[in-house]
UniProtKB/TrEMBL annotation:
This is Permease. The chain crosses the membrane at residues 39-58, 70-92, 98-117, 124-141, 147-169, 181-204, 210-230, 242-262, 268-286. GO terms for cellular component: membrane. Residues 8-140, 150-279 form the EamA domain. It comes from the Bacteria. It comes from Malikia granosa. PANTHER family: ACYL-MALONYL CONDENSING ENZYME-RELATED, BLR4310 PROTEIN. It holds the Pfam family EamA. SUPFAM superfamilies: Multidrug resistance efflux transporter EmrE (SSF103481). InterPro entries: EamA_dom, EmrE-like.
Amino acid sequence: MKLRHGQAVALMVLVTLLWSTAGVVARQLESARSFELTFWRSAFTALSLFLLLPLWQGRGVWARMWQSGALLWVSGTCWAAMFTCFMLALTLTSVANVLITLALGPLLTALIAWLGLGHRLPARTWGAILLAGLGIGWIYGGQIESGGWTGILVAAGVPLSGAINWTLVQRNQQRGNPPDLAPAVLVGAVLSALLTLPLAWPLQASGPDLAWLAGLGFGQLALPCLLSVVCARSLSAPEISLLALLEVLFGIVLAWLGANELPPPRTLQGGALVLGALLANEWLAYRSRARSHSRIRPADGSLAREPA
């Protein structure tokens, strides 16, 4: 399936809205906490993907998984770290703090690609990294002073794992071996569930808790992750990065409306700096690409040569 550009944008907005429901749903739970919360969401995500993947890619998906090599399992390990750190972070700090920390993903990806793949970073990206770092420091400054640094470190594991994951995927694409990302999400969900089950035992989730967590596994993770793969066929990586930032806005608003969790001014101020840095970086990148594509064609129809 390949969507038109407008359809892909609309679908990606829906994907970010679905992703953003984790925080407000986590605040509705009665008895499931910490590792048990993470276990159930990962388990329901794995179950959903076991059902969805054959419908989407056919029964041959299982054979292709075993032939994918080590990258599938490395990528799955990264997904497991993201799933686990995200839900644990929600039990340690506010929804707004977690989501703003996740927004650092594009910048961390650029930084790790520079370190691991030798990609050259333009000045605008270095500037965005500096501004976003200042914003995060402003948000968490008071918490560090009071010893509340645990939630920060756990939440930071999500964009860091994501950055490593996408860098590995990009390296294999450059080598002509593009991986199938959807089965890696399944591997990550299974690994996360297996890892957190011993830590979550004995399980104490109530019936309503299980219903909420089943909804998270299917509607907040499994389905939107598959839909995002469809969007990636019609949208560029910068467009997806920009649209994904809507998760921060949607998540904060939903936590405010659904759980009465209004972010303090310090979080809003630092978050504005982080998001502003990301938006400015992507806008400048877009303008740079637009200038590159608007080169004037000579009379013979060939593209004008770029200056050395």
